[in-house]
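re: the backbone from monday

yeah here it is again, tokenized this time
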């Protein structure tokens, strides 16, 4: 029986030996990351990283920290966003000499392109109305009210004496504007008004010029803005009243019957003056047609930007406006659905506030910059310039000679624009998986030399408060392929070196991106007919963004992506 069982025992030992040898043999390392998905927007949640690795003898690091494996090789860990706009999650697995890596970019909040409301709101503040009042005074003077007075005052014509008005002089008219729920209360001040009168007696034998002076003439009116269906803007005048004050004049050394005649005649000039002005104001300017429609459409490197004034109203904080905006579509119409910034939402003393959603920046930059970067031709001279930089990287001496360098940029599909409570920058474009590829031209073919995934952030600053200025940061990245001798470089050194050149490469594209808020507002302001009263106001625009802050709702909550920009519209004298 022992003899019989011996071959069986030896067979069993042989099976175990075979099984043991199979288990101990090298296995192919595999790594699978099941969550989060690539480019996921997490809202307010943390990133939950799950995956599976094989074999169990492998080790796994998530963002450089070892994680515990379950019996089936699965793992899970949670990474807080800690207020970051994005996070590049790096999962690494190692087994002896084998190495696997997955890089997954994720973003906090929601996608601005999906929450973009297609509109903006604006507020002309009390400080802005003060500045506008100066311009309105110029509009009033341009109406020729002084000439109207001179022409409308009746003359006195007798056989012996003629008395008639010769003209009106005055200081520049100033308008003081006070907003309310009912409209804008305007007090128009015509200062140092002097009415010239000439007495001609005895067919020119006696000519006496007289100046009748008024310290100021005050016109108080209520202005109600109206925007019709065609986008034409007008101001309706109501509750008008005019006070000409007390007249001051000198009659010289005249006496007797001539003095009495002149005093009576002057009184006939003064008494109807306020009535003349009021009747003329209501008849000629009961409705002041300012012009319009205030709308424009422009092209930014193939991206169509359209804007129009869609609604207008007043309250005790100023003049509010709704702006419809279309990006690669018509401008939206109707009343806005987003809050209008209050006077206290902007920087103290700002002329205006503009409520803008960061989705506007993202949609504009998708076509105007991101697509441009992907299509940018960096061959030829540009390729040689960049290639010289690549050869200067650690390990660059190993690059083969050839007919030149071929370089390609790919911003990828995972990106986000976030506005900031700042104007330096006012917004940041994050592209965490920006691919950079470089190769050497060999007989018409491009031989791969280097491929990297770079975390690229473009800071969108405002030069002079209006002109877009691009600055580039590369806080991290990874080498996906490098043809150099592994002993001649470290990954961190090469990534850092590439980051220095990204500013040059993106600068080549940014040079084509011409975006100036001052010119865009000028286009909007100048979109009405030539000669409209508004054209005189907007001709003096000197726009500067001075501040950026989150725009809060009335209940103190914040709608993600909404910011209020403080603007000065007129240059300080």
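seq for it, each position gets an aa:
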């Amino acid at each position: 029986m022992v003899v019989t069982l011996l071959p069986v025992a030896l067979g069993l030992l042989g099976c175990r030996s075979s099984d043991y040898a199979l288990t101990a043999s090298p296995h192919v390392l595999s790594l699978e990351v099941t969550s989060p998905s690539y480019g996921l927007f997490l809202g307010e949640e943390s990133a939950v990283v799950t995956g599976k690795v094989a074999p169990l003898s492998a080790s796994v690091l998530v963002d450089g920290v070892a994680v515990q494996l379950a019996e089936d090789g699965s793992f899970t860990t949670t990474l807080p966003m800690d207020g970051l706009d994005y996070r590049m999650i790096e999962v690494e697995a190692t087994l002896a000499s084998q190495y696997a890596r997955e890089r997954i970019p994720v973003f906090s909040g929601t996608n601005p392109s999906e929450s973009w409301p297609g509109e903006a709101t604006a507020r002309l503040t009390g400080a802005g109305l003060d500045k506008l009042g100066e311009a309105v005074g110029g509009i009033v003077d341009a109406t020729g009210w002084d000439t109207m007075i001179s022409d409308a005052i009746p003359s006195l014509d007798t056989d012996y004496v003629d008395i008639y008005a010769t003209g009106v002089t005055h200081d520049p008219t100033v308008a003081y504007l006070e907003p309310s729920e009912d409209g804008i209360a305007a007090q128009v001040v015509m200062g140092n008004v002097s009415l010239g009168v000439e007495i001609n007696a005895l067919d020119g034998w006696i000519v006496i010029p007289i100046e009748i002076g008024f310290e100021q003439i005050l016109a108080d009116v209520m202005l109600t803005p109206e925007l019709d269906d065609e986008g034409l803007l007008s101001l309706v005048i109501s509750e008008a009243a005019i006070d000409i004050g007390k007249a001051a004049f000198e009659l010289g050394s005249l006496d007797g019957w001539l003095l009495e005649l002149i005093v009576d005649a002057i009184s006939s000039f003064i008494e109807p003056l306020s009535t003349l002005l009021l009747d003329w104001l209501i008849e000629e300017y009961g409705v002041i047609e300012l012009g319009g429609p205030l709308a424009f459409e422009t092209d930014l490197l193939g991206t169509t930007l359209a804007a129009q004034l869609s609604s207008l109203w007043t309250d005790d904080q100023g003049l509010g406006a709704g702006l419809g905006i279309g990006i690669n579509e018509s401008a939206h119409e109707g009343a806005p659905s987003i809050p209008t910034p209050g006077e206290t939402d902007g920087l103290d003393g700002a002329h205006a506030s503009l409520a803008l959603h960061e989705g506007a920046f993202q949609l504009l930059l998708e076509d105007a910059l991101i697509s441009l970067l992907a299509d940018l031709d960096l061959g030829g001279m540009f390729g040689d310039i960049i290639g010289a930089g690549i050869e200067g990287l650690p390990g660059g001496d190993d690059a083969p000679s050839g007919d030149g360098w071929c370089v390609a940029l790919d911003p990828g599909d995972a990106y986000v624009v976030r506005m900031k409570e700042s104007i330096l920058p006012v917004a940041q474009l994050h592209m965490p998986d920006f691919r950079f590829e470089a190769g050497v031209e060999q007989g018409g073919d491009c031989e791969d030399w280097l491929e990297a995934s770079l975390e690229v952030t473009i800071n969108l600053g405002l030069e002079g408060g209006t002109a877009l200025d691009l600055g580039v940061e590369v806080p991290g990245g990874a080498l996906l392929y490098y043809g150099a001798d592994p002993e001649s470089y470290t990954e961190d050194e090469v990534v850092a070196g590439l980051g220095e050149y990204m500013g040059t490469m993106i600068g080549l594209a940014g040079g084509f991106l011409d975006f100036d808020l001052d010119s865009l507002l000028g286009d909007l302001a100048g979109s009405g007919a030539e000669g409209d009263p508004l054209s005189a106001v907007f001709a003096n625009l000197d726009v500067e963004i001075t501040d950026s802050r989150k725009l809060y709702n009335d209940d103190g909550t914040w709608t993600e992506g909404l910011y209020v920009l403080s603007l000065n519209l007129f240059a300080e004298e």
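Residues 1-25 have pLDDT under 50 and may be disordered. Residues 180 and 316 are 4 Å apart (CA to CA).
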